[in-house]
Amino acid sequence: MLNLILFGPPGAGKGTQSEKIIAKYNLIHLSTGDLLRSEIQAGTELGLQAKTLMDKGILVPDEVVIGMIDNKLKEHRSAAGFIFDGFPRTVKQAEALDNLLASYNEGISVMVALSVDDDELLARLLNRGKTSGRPDDQNEELIAKRIQEYNSKTKPVADYYQEQGKFVAINGIGEIDFIFEEISNAIEAA
Ligand code: ADP
Q1: Could you read off the pLDDT of 61-108 as tens digits, one per residue?
Q2: 128 is catalytic
Q3: How far apart are CA 21 and CA 29, in angstroms?
Q4: 37, 167, 172, 190: which could join 114 in a potential S-S bond, CB 3.0 to 4.6 Å?
Q5: From the CB of residue 3, how many other CB atoms can be counted at a distance below 10 Å?
Q6: Beta-bridge mates of residue 28
């Protein structure tokens, strides 16, 4: 199996690159942000609880997203592999993911991190907010909060995979196709 984590701050281009990776490598896309937004759409209890946090730019509890990922792994037993997008976002989530995969005798193949500076992120997210309809993309304070959550809680996840020798950083500023080529190279080297 090819199990890839696509890592980076909000607005780094994970969604855009995910689509291209899925098409090329036939992986199942697991985006916890998308899964949470589906729960909100469906009006579930989980969705209602998640929404109050997401609307403030705060991470939802680890147990919630770990449970969602657990369900999806069970649903797709015969997949060629997975691309994890927006997950794991804390070291606790990373440990849980490693344990879940280990229970299938699997593991993470590589973490590819897209680096983009904060000014560019803010510009991209405000721009996305004009068309995405996402409330968390439409307010500068909220975007700053998400970037702050990323810096304090999520960045350490990169060190976690670096210690396992699985971390590859790629410049997330430039031509989409060029960035995709760099990601493909990292996947094929893994
Ligand atoms: P972005 O990375 O652009 O902020 P996402 O769609 O990945 O967008 O996430 C939107 C929001 O959903 C986050 O701000 C957070 O509140 C919540 N969320 C998504 N994934 C996770 C996760 N793995 N752990 C905790 N909260 C999450």
Answers
A1: 999 999 999 999 999 999 999 999 999 999 999 999 999 999 999 999
A2: yes
A3: 9
A4: 172
A5: 22
A6: 82
Backbone φ and ψ for 171, nearest 5 degrees, come out as -70, 120
Three-state secondary-structure class, residue 11 = coil
Tell me whether residue 92 is one of the annotated catalytic residues: no
Cα(17) to ligand 1 centroid in Å equals 17
Identify the pLDDT of residue 23.
94
In the residue annotation, 14 being an active-site residue is answered as yes
Residue 90 CA, closest ligand 1 atom number: 24
Closest by Cα among 175, 158, 172 to 120: 172
pTM above 0.85, yes or no: yes
Cα 165 to ligand 1 centre (Å): 25
- CA 61 to ligand 1: nearest atom: 25
What does the pLDDT look like over 127-181, one tens digit per residue?
A: 999 998 888 999 999 999 999 999 999 999 999 999 999 999 999 999 999 999 9
